[in-house]
Amino acid sequence: MFPLADLRLDQRQLCDIQGRLFELARARGYDCPTFIEAFMNSDVARRMDGVFDFLQWAGEEYLLEELDDEVGGLPRAGASWGREPMYWTGYLYRLWHYLTGETSRAIYATADADTMGGAYLGMHVLDPELAIENLKELAAQRP
């Protein structure tokens, strides 16, 4: 795992942008688990995983529009999470990518929206590296 202390400023900023994107999806009334699944398996997320793509710096409003267009319309209503769990999930997913090099799609296969929603209460207070390790251990215990 890449050391957290070696994370560059631009990488930290992209973690924040993704956290704000997840918050914005909630604020706009999208179904939170469905949004998370759509995003983590999208071309938008794949481009966020890249070394550099202009889309990374377009801001959360533009990212949300791009995702909505890509999936042909995100569903509104449904399950709504709190602002903090949404931010934490978005931030941690992006950080996870930087620390491990795993793609967004692979990360989601390990820790899907239900896992992240259930893990938030106990894991959001942990060091991010430890939270990621714990989430991987949870995935390994699944049948």
Your description of this structure?
The protein has 143 residues and is mostly helical. It has 8 helices and no strands. The chain has one domain.
Summarize the structure.
By secondary structure, the protein is mostly helical. Helix content is 68%, strand content 0%. It contains 8 helices and no strands.
Write a concise keyword list for the protein shown above:
143 residues; mainly alpha
SSE layout:
Elements (H helix, E strand, L loop, with lengths): L8 H19 L4 H9 L2 H7 L10 H12 L11 H18 L3 H7 L2 H11 L4 H14 L2
Helix pairs in contact: 1-4, 1-5, 5-7, 7-8
Label the structural class: mainly alpha
Helical content class? 55-70%
What is the count of distinct domains? Answer: 1
Helix tally equals 8
Find the count of extended strands (DSSP E, 2+ residues).
0
